[in-house]
## 1
Amino acid sequence: MSALTGCQTMQGWLNTESEAPIAGSNQTPESNADRALRSSEHATAIALERARAYAQGRADAYFADPAKNDVDTPSQATMRTLERKKARPAGNPLELINPTIADARVELSADLRGAYRASVKEDDDPEIFTGNFSSKPGTELVVFKPGKEVVVYSKDSRIARLPLSGDAAPEAFAELGLELDPSGVQAVDIVQDNTLQLLTHRRMPTEDGTFAYKVSVLKVIGPFIGEVFSHTLATSETEDGPLTRVGTYEFLRGEDHRDIRWIPADDNGEWQTDQAVVLKWNQWEGMYRVPAPPAAAPKRNQIQVSENSAPHTPTKATLPTSAALSPRYLSTNPG
């Protein structure tokens, strides 16, 4: 074999992935540099589209590569799921929304009662909801008994229960400008974790004999039902007495979850919009609250003292002794 033939053979091995020119055309094989440039431009275009979608708050911020039609591997499927979970609700985070899920309210039939083995009496006059109210797979049955309790059932067992007090008082809440279901409870989708919550409005007696008109959001957290948001909207001296406004609320679209804007009222019942605060879902505390500012790192060579710390009080062990305080003299006695 000649040297020229050997070089041609080696060159053929190295170019096995290059496209051969089509006979009768002017096309030439694509070089490695051209392929790298084309791949880089393609990846850049996808990245820019993702960034643009994220900046616009679009929920479909995940874009598959149209050049790939093969089946996702497990790792690709996992990444796709994570991307969907990171997708934020579309629209302006400060946009007012109505989170009510009307389809969750149902009538309690014999079949539904038997499927969940729910304990409901005829005189309970309950409000019934179905849907995914807990983190467990499947749907649950929620039985809301006004002034008594709320119970969540799965098809296997009772998940959680919370005693309730108060009554609906729809006329009073209508006076506050709230258009509510007469039952005072509705299913909502506020915490965006693939579960539903309950929004309740109740007139409740207080310890001092007056009445408070409260709004609450109830959420199933493990084997419990937590009151993750609760505020007093108004008060009255008697059960049917005139209302004194305390504040009102609004639901905002938010980012990762729906936000709640609380607007206080002054002594005349006027809304103080300049003093409104936005409460966000705190997953670690399991409640809506005003976000706390991030903790600052302590300054170097400076003792950090908490505002709640008690002042330092010297103890007997730390006080200097009289011998330490008195001057010391050298003895001149040779003995």
## 2
Amino acid sequence: MHEEIRLQSNPDTQHIRYRRDIDGLRALAVSAVILFHVDERLLPGGFAGVDIFFVISGFLITGNLVEVHEASRLSLAEFYRRRMKRILPALAVVVLATLAAGVLILLPEDLVALAHSALASMTFVANVFFDQTLDTSYFAAASNQVPLLHIWSLGVEEQFYMVWPLALAMSLSVLPGWRQRLALILLVTCASFVFAEVMLGSDASYAYYRMPPRVGELLLGAAAFLACRPGGDFLTSPALRNAVGLMALLVIIASLILVSGDYGFPGLSAIPATLATAVLIWAGARGQPWTSSLLSLRPVVWIGLASYSLYLWHWPILAYVRYVFGEVTPASALLSVGATGLLAALTLRYVEQPARAVSWRLGKIAVAYLAAPLVAVALAVLWIGATDGAGTLDHADLMAIRRLERQTANTSDFKYVCSAWRTEAASLEDRKCVLGGKSKDQIEPRILLFGDSNAAHYVGIIGEIAKRSDVAFRNVTTHACPPLLELPNGYGFPGHEDDCRRSLEVIADSLTPYELIILSGQWDIYARRPDFFGHLQQTVETLRRQGHRVVLLGQVPRMPDFDRLCSAKSVKLGFLDCRARERYQLALPLPFNEELRKLAANTPGVFYLDVTPDVCPDGMCSGYLGKQPIYYNGGHLSMKGSWAVGRRLVDRVGIPAFFRTGYLEDQSPG
């Protein structure tokens, strides 16, 4: 991410000099990254700015290594010392500042996680740490609130630098000419891109965070340097050089605008931006194509010079804004970018530049200069760990936070909610999955609630109705699995299609004892699949032919940017007004719920239940009932919230008709 720019191969010698256009290219990369992180809609492919950095780093570091090798003074110890004095001081300042802010802002559990990531960041294994620990599960919290997540890229670079000096030295010694060395590098580069593409299909997190799938991007920079060697330049015409440089710059800009995470990244999707970066660097190696002149403008170069500090500061600032306020508004975006620029300028002036000026001839003083930030971070991490993340909180505030955190517990934290990625037959016999009135343990339930995680978060609502009716029901739900009797192709959650299909088979074979079947799902997601409501109608008609009555549960409105822990955070951050913040004006009725209502209205024995009026009285939706948060995340109720909505529903309309007819009166024990 950061290396001193001294590189340009002179056509007559191997003297290496400063290239302003590479600082300009850095400015483009860091600006793209910051824009993307402020709001990905501003620049959908802005994340590729990191990949541009990788190419630049590969070019610069290879040039430095080749220079010292040809001077017969290659010293790995010297190489790593130079690297550390450029990287560690600014990194330590940002990590310490992020930890200090975390003590003031973060909840205890989040502060402990930050401390662990700080240690990983300072030891350059953040990419491995986040690959192994970052929660990417179905109910994962937003990764854009993890303050040091961006340090993964430094981990990739430093791990590459542990291998590349030796590998390059071997190739320089064994292979006779630069063409052979270039061919070998390009071969490994191609293999890395193919490997990354393969890993996207089996382990996307590994492909994104780990070093091997990213090696090709760094090696493209190395290839660009070797191609700049004497004899490697066929762009003798200034017009041709300008044309190639312009084309490369346009490809980079197009990639930043057009490529998105939907394409899968890095893999083959990373080739246009990274290859164009290498070509642009190569085109500017001799002469001064107009693209190099553009990238060498003074303001652009300054941004490039500060790019390392800009990159370090921007993400923690944005992460904390999102953690506290839930979103980055235009006003907070401007303030965040302004703060990033100010802190980067100060860090460049008072940390980066003095650190580079430290002479290794000072020996112990230089070592102490680098050791001090490591020790400071280690002590901060130890203190956070010793307090279990409580930091400066007093006991009363800590207990208040714990109580408020429990209010929004996920449905999976409750034993009576029977939810899994694969539903087994045993779940349809397990008594803990049965809820209802006082007679629930004395009778076999004749009501079944099934569906996906939306069905799971309705357990409290149906439980409240059942309790007041003194009837029993069983719940059995399967994550990300639509409430159908058969799974159409392409409907399953990636990686869990077989689990879903098998679960539906088990449920379909176990329906006989149930008179009433309650179906619930993330209808807004499924409605995007081909002919979903046609498949749902087939399921409903099959259930009716089998003698079951059916209830279709409408989906609760999604709450944009809902923060279930806002109330807990307000213990530390007294200025937060969570109830006012978590209110949304949504377009009602929801179109997919209307489809369910029509299906129920046109099919005898099918009922529709919608709790939207209880969540959105007077058309204004809220994640709170009074002072109580009722959502777990933007699309799911918490279990306590589910019971609270159930109470409001019954108080508002009484026991729904489908719970008051026919067989239910016969369920009471004799």
## 3
Amino acid sequence: SFEKILIEVIILFMVIPRKINFTQMGRYGSHVEQTYRNAFGFKKSKSIDWLKLNVSLAKRFFGKQGRWAIAIDPSYISKAGKKTPHIGRFWSGCAQSVKHGLEIMGIGLVDIDAKDCMMLRAHQSLSNKELSLRNKTMVDFYISVIKRYRKELLKLSILIVADAYFSTSTFVNGIKKEGFSLISRFRDNACLFYVYTGPRTGKRDRPKTKDGKIDMKNLDLTRMEKMEMKDIEGTAYTLIAYSKALRCKVRLVIWQMPNGKKKLFFSTDTSLSGEEVLLYYRT
């Protein structure tokens, strides 16, 4: 049956060395190559809800629902040729450059108490050429992927964890419309302000929200709270700040490392604690 072949294929993925394809499955598996090809024909593969399957496996692994978040991470895949669907030039984090190949948008489930992440779905990215024909950007595409799986993901968490590439107003506002908040990291030169907490002036103008720019070289420690975390080197502080780029208030974590450098983490969900922001991002 298809169910037995599916279980066998999952095992083969863990066993087969190097390249994994139908030829390799026929070589290492208990069926001939054509059996695997027939089982995973276009219609059959489309009928499998891989997200629901992996969610059920993740729930079995993590147990009852705890402090979960959705992790997203685009990953470059090396691929030669010109005929492969959606082939183009994508950013490779390992090479720190743009390279010819493919890209998948990885979606995972993070459990900060278990300190682990389970893969839920891999969605292939469109090339920049294909996106330009649709008048879309890569960020627009990433938002559309989240929108596509929105219903199932919201059952797990409203928090999305992503790297600094996603710390833009376009992405934040895009996922906010779908019901999600972002946990990410600001670039080192991010423009941030202290939040004004004084009395209202009573004037008819827009209420004051900002109360001075945050100088990372001269922090006002009276406006922030020192975090007590045993598993980090250096010192960390947290406060509610205003982001000029995102045009909203964020829960900000300033991590001052022993070498003097600072890293800036944040969450658009200001109800989170600074400790939770760091735990979600680092997990």
